[in-house]
Amino acid sequence: MPSRILATLCTLFIVLTFAPAQSFPDVRPSPAQLEWQDLEIGVIIHFSTNTFLNREWGDGTASPSVFNPAHVDTDQWMEAAKAGGAKYAVLVAKHHDGFALFPSTHTDYSVKASPWMNGKGDLVRLASDSAHKTGLGFGVYLSPWDRHDSRYPDPKAYDTYYLSQLTELSSHYGLLTEFWLDGAGSAGRTYDFDKIVQELRTYQPNTIVFADTALYKNADARWVGSENGTVPYENWNVIDRAGYLRWRPVEADTPLRKLHWFWHPNDESSLLSLDELLDIYTKTVGRGAQLMLGIAPDNTGRLPESDVARLREFGEAVKRIYSNNLAVNATHAPNDATVAATDNNPDTFWSAPDRHATLELRFNKPVTFDRTVTMEWLNEGQRIQDYSIEAWQDGAWKQIAHARAIGHKKIDLFPAVTTQRVRLNLLSTVGSAGVREFQLYDGTQNAAVAKAK
């Protein structure tokens, strides 16, 4: 065999043997992605010169002197976020106007040029310390678009500047749960994100990099496509970018005040209602996505009391609705492996038989429920491709919910059902799927009990 042909065949063998999997079910998450998806709810905090100028987007011309909050209370921010169910907080360290909330050594346009704390303050330090003290993860948002810095028109010079600020943020403030990239204002601009993320990984190897799929190909999480906090499609964790497959779970972001990321005066009517927040929860976390809720301190440096109260109401309502898992009362035969999916412990899971399987719950007396929560074991990929929830009624199985994707968590709502038998019917799976939890709740009853108390 000619040496050229032999070399070609050897190269082809190596490519076929070691090439990344290009089948959707074969693409798997990293341990960091799995851990991040279990966090489920985060908050993103907007607080900068815009807060004092009654606007959403600054143009980079605001004087640092306008940033002078009298009572910054980052402990209050984080305690309110935790009460709302958040497990981590992302601070906007630099928005599009270029004003940095930390004393960067690479620009004078930052808190060190402001009268706040006589120019000695570091809001990123305060927020990071408060988050960690409260038991929350912490992350940062560093806008690629910069409407102030004179280096921005020169891509090479600006990328060097951006990289230097990222190095400061990733090496001085402890572990970062998430690094948030925003593509706003970047149409037609190409950044060297590969180099930027490589630098980030030097200090923060487990940080989840969030970015729109069109902004950065190799990010770890992706934008849902809107800012209304809903997932309007079957949510598959693997995204296809022109033939390039990657595990990129969805993050759905929405502000606590409708369409307002920054605080504005006389704006109480924009606060989301509790019912709206619960609907958002169902359509984000309940569709396998991360909920990123925007909160905004006012011009004193504290979250408005109405926002604090609403976050607390939201967190309490979610706990109340999902406090009494009826599935734990189901009867099981000895050595029934499905018990691992009904034990209220997401760390255990049931390995379903290949391609099609059912998980049936039987009760000694009728139970009434109006929602189910199903969690898929994703360590080896997203494998459930079609399923239904069914109740035994009038001597036959009746379908009460049906969808394709489950993913990290799926909440199915339906009119209340009373039965002694209910099952999760996995209509189609790729190989053996894993089910971490199959739970039943009567949300209406839980709400009524809480109201009576």
Number of helices in the DSSP assignment: 10
Distance between the termini: 84 Å
Task: Identify the overall geometry.
Answer: globular
CATH architecture of the largest domain: Alpha-Beta Barrel
Report Rg: 24 Å
Q: Can you tell me about this structure?
A:
This protein has an 8-stranded parallel beta sheet, with helices on both faces. The protein has helices at 3-18, 31-39, 49-53, 74-83, 123-134, 155-172, 193-203, 274-283, 305-321, 443-452; strands at 41-45, 88-94, 137-142, 178-180, 208-210, 222-223, 238-241, 244-247, 250-255, 290-295, 350-351, 357-377, 384-393, 396-403, 410-429, 434-441. The chain has 453 residues and is an alpha/beta fold. The protein has 2 domains: 22-321, Glycosidases (TIM Barrel); 326-452, Galactose-binding domain-like (Jelly Rolls, Sandwich). Helix 4 packs across helix 5. It is globular, with a radius of gyration of 24 Å. The protein is built from 10 helices and 16 strands. Helix content is 26%, strand content 25%.
